[in-house]
Amino acid sequence: MSFHFSPIYFLRYFLKKEATQFLTSVAIRNLALGMILIFEPIYLYLYFGKSLSLTVLFFAAVFGLYGLLAVFGGKIMAKIGLRRSMLISHFFFFSYYLCLFFFNQIFLLITLAIVLRAVGMVLFWPAFHIDFALFSKKNHRGREVGKLSVACSIPVIISPILGGWILSISGYPGLFIAVLVALFASAIPLFLSKKKRVIYTDSFIGAWQRVFKKENRQTSLALATNALEGVINGYLWPLFMFILAISYAAMGGITSFALAASLLFALYMGKISDTKERTWLLNIGAVWTSIAWLIKYFVVMPFDAFLAQTLYRTCRTSASIPFQTIFYEKASLKGAEADEFIIYREIVMNLSKFFFLVILAGIFLIFPYINITFLIAAVLSLGFMFLGKPPKFKFK
User: Fold this and answer.
1) 219-240 pLDDT, tens per residue?
2) Is residue 211, in this structure, part of any structural domain at all?
3) Within a domain: 392
4) Among residues 321, 380, 370, which one has the least CA distance to residue 349?
5) How many domains does the chain contain in total?
6) Does the pTM of the predicted model rise above 0.85?
7) In a domain? residue 138
8) In angstroms, what CA-CA distances link 76 with 83, 123, 186?
9) How many CB atoms lie within 10 A of CB 304?
10) For residue 187, what are the CA distances in angstroms to 7, 87, 94, 182, 289?
């Protein structure tokens, strides 16, 4: 009897389950984007002549356009299906990074890059969140969020080091090529997935009415603060490390080690999010994250950055797991309106980023000191509590 091992057969068997297809695609995508994520704002910062204001305005334009187009993303995914929407988004991200690659040759590609990234986000993120909300189990949602966090984090542990190494050896051209190849590979699992439809009924006006409903104010505040804190960590913290003259390889190492330190903690937090009071965990995590940002403000050396980011990632995980678990629980409780709730989330988060970054661009014209935003992030972190039940303080 002979046995013939076929890699193609194994791949099809491994990717047979919908959850496996979803997580595999996300993992490879994160590997691709993780290689460039912390270096992208630095690339744009150098392109714009080391102007902080122009750099943040670029990202403001992306988020503002996404916030405005989010409703159309809901309508598109309802028409073509969740997985197909995510699949098509990869081609827009692919084109976006091609535009970045050729920025120096054609100035007008800046505008095209903004549009491509915004459309890619419109197609990917609403479908991503709705898909996860549909297949995650109610009684184990905390664990599912923990697993998702790990699936997202494992490749990102490797990718910053890999990206920093490629950047040090081959420069940005080599890095862009590596990202494009990995991004293309991340689309393969989605080709195998079945079409999964949702019904999205909100009009453009209806979606905006949700944003301004009185009963949604507390949730909107939590989503906005979460988004703004994430922007500071994702875009301004890498720029701060670059200004401190930390090498690309060292930046990748700092980011990778900090993620690795928080990985096991993510699984633990996911598990206890199903057994402990989630709002209590969220409140504690928010306070810890705020303290971590205060420590970041005093960073002046590469080793300081290493310790501060490692502490931050662990503290942020203690807040993000219960935060995401509560959010997906809220979405699932909406029943047939879960997709409308997701789109509402995308509008709030991305338009908040737009206005915040526009204001920051003005501030940076007068005070070009990035670490000022770390104090803002410390305050914003406390806003995570509004997704659950923030503690009430009584003064006598």
Assistant:
1) 999 999 999 999 999 999 999 9
2) yes
3) no
4) 380
5) 1
6) yes
7) yes
8) 11, 8, 21
9) 14
10) 18, 6, 11, 9, 34
